[in-house]
Every structure is written in C-alpha cells, then in structure tokens.
Sequence to fold (391 residues):
Amino acid sequence: MSKTVVVLGAGVGGLTAAAELRKALPAQDRIVLIDRSFTGSLGLSLLWVLRGWRTPDQVAVRPTAATLPGVDMITSEVTSVDLETRTVECGPAGPIGYDALVVALGAGLDVSRLPGLRQALDAEVAGQFYTVEGAADLHRRVGALESGRIMVLVAAVPFKCPAAPFEAAFLIGDQLGERFTSGAVRVDAFTPDPLPMPVAGPAVGNALVSMMDAQGIGFHGSKSATSVDPQMRTVYFADGSTESFDLLAVVPPHAPGAAVASTGLGPGGWIPVDPASLATTAPGVFAVGDSTALLLPNGKPLPKAAVFAEAEGEVAAHQVARYLGYGAADTRFTGDGACYVELGGGMAAKGEGNFLTAPAPQVTLREPSTAYHAEKEQQERDWLARWNVSS
Fold:
C-alpha cells in the first residue's frame, strides 16, 4: 500500500528533505511539498542585496516541477496541523493526510513584538534586511544618508543567521565608503547577547568585536530593546538607557508561524527535536531548520542557519524512510557547520566547527581572506543552480 509524506515549507530544509525523500522512497509513494509561493532566497544573498551587489531577481530561488521530479508541489498557505488525525490544513488544497510529516516552515518576522518598530518601519526611519525587498530598500536608504548614525539593532533573540547583524554593520560601512571612514556617518551594533554569536563561544565573539573595533564599528552587548520612538528616532533599552539614531537597520523579532504553533509540540511555538534524528515527540513527525528548538549539550539552542537546515533535511528524509519501514541509511545530524562573516572589500572570515560537541560547541573563526568570500559566492551559485531549473 502506497504512503504519503508531506513536507511543509520550501526553504533550504524543506527542498533538501523533499529531494532526498524522492530518492529514498519507492516510486509509488507520494511526496507532497507545500509552500505559500515557492519563491525564496538564501540568507547570505540578502546581505549582498543590502550591499548592492545583487538585485532581488538575481538571488531568487524558484523551484519547479523540473527541479523536483516526482514531487507534488502545492502552492498554498499552511494554516494548521492536526497530529491526531494526521492531516494538514492548507486552504483550498487541504486537508491533506499524511503517513509521515516533515515540518520545515522556518521562522517569521513579528515586528509588532517591539513597540514602535512597525511605526518606525512605516515612517521609513527604520529598515530591515531579512527579506529581499527590505534589503534592497535599506540599501537605498543607506546610500541617501550623508551624515549621522546608523544603528544595527538585534531586536530580540533567537533570530536567523547569527552572523547577519554584524555582517550588515560591516557591509553598511563598506557601502558608505568615505562617509564612514571620515566619521560623517557612524555605525553601531546593539544586541541582547553579551557577545556576537554567543553559541560559538567567547573566543569567536571577542574576535568579531575586535574586527568591528578595527573598522570603527561600535559594538554594544547586553542591550535588550524595549521600544522604539520613531519621531524622536530613539531606542529604549531594558537597562534604562536610550540611544538615538538617524537610520535604524533592524533584525526584527522572530516568531514561529501559526501552523508551527498549531502542532502544540513546543510551549513557545518552536518545535523541540531529537538532536540526532530530528524526530519530534509525535510519531512520524520530524522537524528541520529554523522552526526547531534543537538543544545543544550546553543547554543552548542550535543557531538558526541554512547550513544546518540543509544537513537536517537529509537526515529527516532518511529517518522518515526508516519510520515507514524502508531500509534507508540510519544517518544522524552531526552538528558540523560553517558560517561566513562578510567584512566588505571582497573579504570574509569563516567560523567552522562542531556544535554538538560536549560540553560546548568547538568553533574556530578563521582569519578574513578573499578565498572565504569566493567560497561564499560559490555556495550561492551552487544553490541557485541546483533549484532554478527550467522546465
């Protein structure tokens, strides 16, 4: 009797899982991939849109039936998941029943969680770089600023791509050019964490702070924003301090979507998973990527990053096949990962290591080089070529 596996979300994790499932399952089994638009992009590409090195169209990922032969692709918004009846509600296309499920719905942006942020975005005194449209718009605003202060603000944790806010600070300074080096425009980064990329350890965080300091970018850790006043162009912090800005480049608060929360698998909405198999507490349900809460041996969550989502997608596909009774490889998530930190001027540093090492992740930040920037460019090219296949 044929079986149906449903994959929710066509981001890095979902695309990888669907492709690997098609290899692992018999041809008579149905694989359904559901996404609201089947148009996305890599996080690293958004930073290059922010810098002006890419246009939104150049970095679009648009998978088609030719990309995923043998996979049913349904364009629809996933509204809820019923674990008892094993069904997915997705508007006109639903409900769709499943024998196994892979949740790869990612993390959404919740600008309303920080009071005043939505108004600051609407008033165009703030911008964000977590969508291609937002990154392109923020690039234009940076280009128009002749003097003053740009504040790069992490509004809340967790958020996608732990290096992204600090890469943004470097790239904004790079775009400003003489306006930045002359001191006409200042760039400062603020985050609730004591150091950048705290899960990678203090050595990595302090190295990044030193790189920012060397380029004249201010770093301000342990600064939890409580509100934004768009008229006064001021950010208020939990410690009672305030900071003014002329342009706010913000990492908006992240939140799991309603469909993820509807599973009831995690009290905060994020889905806890087994670190090795990506299995949830619900039979036959696996979760990968940014929608998960994968706890490391030190009790901290695995960073939300594409490199992990891709590896998790492969593991989840094989574990689904095994759950359904097939002889797939018993692959496990290893926690190995690498992250590039773009500094501008064709230079990038590279953090790499293992995040599942006990008692804490073992990560090294490699010195900046043009070679790492080239590696990052190749990573982008490979991903775009893999999924943008003409039918």
